[in-house]
């Protein structure tokens, strides 16, 4: 093998390694978030619930910096974090919706996977098509949330009864609306601004992490006097 071929192979391996790490973390995070919403955790000790919410939300959001290209813009990082936060909430409510109707559970699991994969891709190799998919897809989910809270699910065991508005679903919808609003900035290719952009990204990530933790605690029914439970 020539030196040129070896260099190309090493460069390709170095480029693939972060994506493999991000994929491994994303898989673990998705499984952990789904298990978090099961009765085994939801009915367990409060300390385990809180620790699980903190760890799962951090693990889910960690997928974004692991997948990010060094040239990822601030806007891309923020919308990716919002998408990952929404994904963690959808994974956490999958088990609960699965008990209601298998199709509901499958839908939330699928949405979680799509949002998490999109979050990784938009900071690794963004494209106009990918950004539009994220914007229109999240807009459709927001519209669906409005329908289910006003007219009902339209399908399933009780299609005409509107769903209640809770902390977890409201935060997930807010995250998705943020992706819709942020999409044009990502598409415009707004460049990062050195250390300032990195600090803003860390600050945004911290806020999104805290809000995601609150949503997961709501799903688990922890501190119901402070955080209205989703169940």
Describe this protein's structure.
- The chain is mainly α and 231 residues long.
- It has one domain.
- 78% of the residues lie in helices and 0% in strands.
- The protein has nine helices and no strands.
- α3 packs antiparallel against α4.
- The longest helix has 34 residues.
- It is globular and about 50 Å long.
- The chain starts with a helix and ends in an 11-residue tail after the last helix.
Keywords:
231 residues, mainly alpha, globular
Task: Give the topology, please.
Layout: H1 3-36, H2 39-42, H3 46-67, H4 74-92, H5 94-100, H6 102-124, H7 128-150, H8 167-187, H9 194-220
Decide which structural class fits the backbone: mainly alpha
Number of helices: 9
Topology pattern, helix = H, strand = E? HHHHHHHHH
Distance between the termini: 61 Å
Amount of beta strand: under 5%
Tally of extended strands?
0
Coarse shape: globular
Mean pLDDT: 88
Which consecutive residue ranges, at least 5 long each, have pLDDT under 50?
4-14
The rounded Rg comes to 19 Å
> Which percent bin holds the helix content?
over 70%
User: What is the count of structural domains?
Assistant: 1
Question: Biggest sheet: strands, sense, closure?
Answer: none
